[in-house]
């Protein structure tokens, strides 16, 4: 096991012990050890080999033994034993907001229940309202939590499905006889989450393709197999469907399985209006005959008098109308991104120095980096005091002097929007930044009106250049806070404040649907990785996918602008203050 896996196992032990009612010192020791292992500088296997684990603060002999087993064998009988003693349903309950191990245990013991369905029923029957330590309010919170768990079950974030899809695609493309292969479905449309991976292959000989696909080391279980179709469940969670067709059908099958369903329906009715029938095998005249030959998807669109429609746009949100009028946007792409804004460094909660973050950006071909560490209210994230801001700016000046114009670091900040809508520093500090991202990190539970007013007030503040992760959602984990987002986005557009597309795969916030609406009203965006390490910078491509789904052009994304243009924009905003 590697370091992260060991940390996850230790924290699982802590949770299981808590669910079993063990004493808090013991449970906390595992939680602490997990954090320590995750963040330590030393090499874990080396420490294990030398038997020096217990030199780490907080790691006693017993813990050292368990960690050694985890690193060496990849498993730990003690953990297996604990897992067997805890009803698995209780772990589901833990994913409901507001239910920690203590409360889960209390409900389990008091009501003698242990599954999600039982918990739902208990809430409906007001059993929690009448339970000591709970009440109407906590009961009311649990039901929507269960709902959301069910809705999210079986969906996966982009990094998982995209990586798996890329590997599977590479695998099938290498099979002899395969002419073409493509990922389809929501993965190709770059949806924020996907249920499964759809792959379409053109080959005269399906058998060997399906053979190799099923034999991939990514596969956990084969769940279905026909003459031209194979379904599997992958070890990482999602399932994957492979379909093998002949070369002539391929573009039609890819288009069909790329979807979306609504786009397909709109395409079919457009075909019908032209006296044609469109399905997954071809485009046939309604009165019979052979399919019109189409070498690729572009040819299918062209046969229906449309320009090629990028997969990201295939959501039946006006793409056919825009296409037929020649008004499809030239979408922003990875290669348009000139610089990276909204990154953290070791000054707050990042794991790399500003210099290292800058070199990582340079290596990736970017020409500028806007460092934006947390402000003082975010004390849990090492937010900067005003004095630290001044020190950080000296460091950035030194680095920029060394870089001598080959690369530029902007003095940014991710400033907290306080509960009353004010910013987290006095004006004389705010005035020192080149670039200000303002974000909400606290008081998620305000009413919709109050939360909206709070953010509108921040947008009125002349120091704010970009609104960060505007809804606070965490995909598959946390709902957005109550907010009149439409009003906020419109207000940002009117005030010439950009709203970021936070590219972290768990956020992808601003949502692309609202981005599209905003862009039509003159909104600017910025595709920001919110990176806390060099590797985090690469998340920017997830944001590019979302921006594309929102019909965003390079003109509309600040960080697709060369530095001088961005600096002009920032300067202009500053002279208006
Ligand atoms: P997902 O898997 O839930 O993330 O989303 P998709 O879009 O990948 O959905 P999936 O895997 O169920 O189906 C793949 C595509 O196949 C879908 O985007 C459109 C097409 N499709 C599936 N079922 C239907 C249908 O009943 N009618 C039409 N017109 N197309 C369908
Ligand atoms: Ca799918
Ligand atoms: Zn943030």
TrEMBL record:
Domain Helix-hairpin-helix DNA-binding motif class: 51-70, 91-110, 126-145
Keyword annotations: DNA damage, DNA repair, DNA replication, DNA synthesis, DNA-directed DNA polymerase, Exonuclease, Hydrolase, Methylation, Nuclease, Nucleotidyltransferase, Sodium, Transferase, Ubl conjugation
CDD domains: NT_POLXc, PHP_PolX
Keyword Magnesium: no
Record-annotated DNA-directed DNA polymerase X domain positions: 1-315
Compartments it resides in: Cytoplasm
Keyword Secreted tagged: no
Domain of life per record: Bacteria
Gene Ontology molecular functions: class I DNA-(apurinic or apyrimidinic site) endonuclease activity; DNA binding; DNA-directed DNA polymerase activity; exonuclease activity; phosphoric ester hydrolase activity; zinc ion binding
Pfam families the UniProt entry points to: DNA_pol_B_thumb, HHH_5, HHH_8, PHP
Boundaries of every Polymerase/histidinol phosphatase N-terminal domain copy: 339-419
Listed EC numbers: 2.7.7.7, 4.2.99.18
GO terms (BP aspect): DNA repair
InterPro entries: DNA-dir_DNA_pol_X, DNA_pol_lamdba_lyase_dom_sf, DNA_Pol_thumb_sf, DNA_pol_X_beta-like, HHH_MUS81, Hlx-hairpin-Hlx_DNA-bd_motif, NT_sf, PHP_dom
Entry's transmembrane regions: none
Reactions this protein catalyses: DNA(n) + a 2'-deoxyribonucleoside 5'-triphosphate = DNA(n+1) + diphosphate; 2'-deoxyribonucleotide-(2'-deoxyribose 5'-phosphate)-2'-deoxyribonucleotide-DNA = a 3'-end 2'-deoxyribonucleotide-(2,3-dehydro-2,3-deoxyribose 5'-phosphate)-DNA + a 5'-end 5'-phospho-2'-deoxyribonucleoside-DNA + H(+); a 5'-end 2'-deoxyribose-2'-deoxyribonucleotide-DNA = (2E,4S)-4-hydroxypenten-2-al-5-phosphate + a 5'-end 5'-phospho-2'-deoxyribonucleoside-DNA + H(+)
Signal peptide: none
One cellular component term from this protein's GO annotations in UniProt: cytosol
Cofactor(s) required, per the database record: Mg(2+)
Role played: Repair polymerase that plays a key role in base-excision repair. During this process, the damaged base is excised by specific DNA glycosylases, the DNA backbone is nicked at the abasic site by an apurinic/apyrimidic (AP) endonuclease, and POLB removes 5'-deoxyribose-phosphate from the preincised AP site acting as a 5'-deoxyribose-phosphate lyase (5'-dRP lyase); through its DNA polymerase activity, it adds one nucleotide to the 3' end of the arising single-nucleotide gap.
Alphabetical list of NCBIfam families matching this protein: PRK08609.1 (NF006375)
This protein's name: DNA polymerase beta
Native species: Candidatus Polarisedimenticola svalbardensis
């Amino acid at each position: 096991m590697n370091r992260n896996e060991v940390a996850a196992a230790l924290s699982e032990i802590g949770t299981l012990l808590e669910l079993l009612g063990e004493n808090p010192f013991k449970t906390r020791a595992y939680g602490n050890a997990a954090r320590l292992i995750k963040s330590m500088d030393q090499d874990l296997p080396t420490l294990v080999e030398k038997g020096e684990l217990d030199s780490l603060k907080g790691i006693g002999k017993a813990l050292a033994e368990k960690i050694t087993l985890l690193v060496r064998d990849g498993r730990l009988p003690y953990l297996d034993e604990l897992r067997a003693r805890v009803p698995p349903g209780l772990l589901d309950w833990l994913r409901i907001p507001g239910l920690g191990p203590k409360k889960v245990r209390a409900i389990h013991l008091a009501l003698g229940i242990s599954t999600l369905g039982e918990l739902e029923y208990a809430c409906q029957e007001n059993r929690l309202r009448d339970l000591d330590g709970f009440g109407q309010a906590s009961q009311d919170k649990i039901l929507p939590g269960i709902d959301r768990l069910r809705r999210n079950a079986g969906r996966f974030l982009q990094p998982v499905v995209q990586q798996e899809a890329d590997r599977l695609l590479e695998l099938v493309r290498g099979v002899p006889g395969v002419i073409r292969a493509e990922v389809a479905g929501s993965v190709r449309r770059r949806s924020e989450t996907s249920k499964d991976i759809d792959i379409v292959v053109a080959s005269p000989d399906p058998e060997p393709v399906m053979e190799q696909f099923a034999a991939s080391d990514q596969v956990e279980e084969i769940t279905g197999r026909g003459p031209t179709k194979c379904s599997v469940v992958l070890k990482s969670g999602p399932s994957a469907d492979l379909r093998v067709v002949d070369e002539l059908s391929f573009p039609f099958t890819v288009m069909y399985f790329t979807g979306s369903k609504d786009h397909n329906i709109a395409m079919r009715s457009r075909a019908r209006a032209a006296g044609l029938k469109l399905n997954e095998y071809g485009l046939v005249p309604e009165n019979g005959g052979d399919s019109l030959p189409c070498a690729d998807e572009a040819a299918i669109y062209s046969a229906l008098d449309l320009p090629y429609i990028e997969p990201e746009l295939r959501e039946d949100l006006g793409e056919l109308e825009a296409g037929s009028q020649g008004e499809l946007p030239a979408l922003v792409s990875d290669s348009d991104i000139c610089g990276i804004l909204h990154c953290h460094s070791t000054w707050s909660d990042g794991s790399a120095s500003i210099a290292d973050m800058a070199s990582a950006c340079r290596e990736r071909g970017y020409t500028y980096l806007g460092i934006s560490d947390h402000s003082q209210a975010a004390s849990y994230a090492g937010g900067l005091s005003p004095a630290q801001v001044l020190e950080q700016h000296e460091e950035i000046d030194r680095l920029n002097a060394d870089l001598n114009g080959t690369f530029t670091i902007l003095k940014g900040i991710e400033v907290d929007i306080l509960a009353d809508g004010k910013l987290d520093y006095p004006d004389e500090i705010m005035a020192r930044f080149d670039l200000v991202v303002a974000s909400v990190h606290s008081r998620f539970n305000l009413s919709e009106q109050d939360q909206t007013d709070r953010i509108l007030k921040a947008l009125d503040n002349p120091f704010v250049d970009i609104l960060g992760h505007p809804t606070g959602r965490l995909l598959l984990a946390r709902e957005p806070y109550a907010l009149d987002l439409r009003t906020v986005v419109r207000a940002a557009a009117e005030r010439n404040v950009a709203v970021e597309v936070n590219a972290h795969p768990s956020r992808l916030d601003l949502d692309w649907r609202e981005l599209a609406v905003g862009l039509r009203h003159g909104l600017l965006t910025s595709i920001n990785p919110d990176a806390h390490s060099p590797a985090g910078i690469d998340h920017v491509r997830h944001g590019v996918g979302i921006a594309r789904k929102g019909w965003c052009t390079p003109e509309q994304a600040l960080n697709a602008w060369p530095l001088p243009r961005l600096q002009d924009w920032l300067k202009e905003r500053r002279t208006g203050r």
